[in-house]
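Archive transcription. Copying these from loose printouts into the bound notebook so they stop getting lost. Printout 1 of 2:
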Amino acid sequence: MATSFYSEDELKKIGFKSYGKNVLISRNAQIYGASKMVIGNNVRIDDFCVLSGAIELGSNIHIAVFCGIFAGNTGVKMCDFSTLSSRCVIYAESDDYSGEHLTNPTIDEEYLERVSGKVELGRHVIVETGATILPGVSIGEGTAVGSMSLVTKSLDEWGIYVGIPCKYKKERSKKLLELEKKYNKQYGE
């Protein structure tokens, strides 16, 4: 019986650098540059996601429907228990929109300028629906980014940030760390 996720044999054929146990990737997701991707255990990537470039996903990660991660050679890292809600986008590389250079992939490199910087989402980071993360951003452990937020600079740990550009709103509870311990004890992580 066919499922909407790739089988173990199909995952092997995609050519990931490495991947762990219980990896569920929708057959409707698009993967570019799989040989640069490292995927941990218990990872789920839903329909219509696009993953491109040097991406490192820890364990217990969910990437919801219609997300895009554009890492290029610069890289995007999502640490354990991090989550992207639907329609989120992460850019580790982008065109320079200043007007000093041409833009888009149909143009020769000599006319382009790239803005790039590794992006890292710490453990237990959740990024709510429709948020956008720009190059060079680090989001600290336990931080929540609100719906439709624009992340243009790095965010501290255990905060809730919202807006365009996003700003600190309040502290986030750390109770989930107790729940993580129970989960790891139960599932041997």
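Printout 2 of 2:
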Amino acid sequence: MTRPHGRWLPLAVLTAALAALIASVVWVSSSTPNSTWRPGPKAMMGTVSSTGPIRTLTDADRAADRFADRWNLHVGEVMQFSNGYYAELLDRNGRGATEVLINPDSRTVQLEFGPAMMWNTSYGMTPARKQTAAAAIGPDQAVRMADQWLKEHRTGLHAAEPDRFPGYYTLHTLRGDRIVGMLSVNATSGDVWYHTWHGRFLQVQEHPAST
């Protein structure tokens, strides 16, 4: 589902679109039969509201940091897209924990829908069956799978190095050396999920310093 550029989407619209996005996932390989999914305890924690306006990467970083504090996490990379802000949350050892969206209109931070909700085995929606400790797919293989998907569905783009999260990888998509968007690769099945909800990429910064 394509979002119009230059418009901030209300949280309610984004939430309502989740079901449609899930249904439109493009798979690159055969999946195992779907298990029964249940909300993880941390995914039930909802959203956090910012105490001030969100107009810059630094504002988005501060808002995401309030959300991260509840889980004893901290903010890593922060990105601005035409449809809102994105941030990755890291654990105390600097490992990827989960991903969030920051809505500048509603001033809210929420768990990113898509892979962060459906594939994250620690902070999102976790399957009822027991998870294996080790990912079946390594980072190099995730890049190859992402590149193959992009070759077939987003001609002219290629994948950057992956960021690992519990149960999946997220990779920037590039045209040459310029960021265009991002996608995720499931670390067990190899399924690919393109992040269609961000809109046009604008800028990125590693944990902007507060002022």
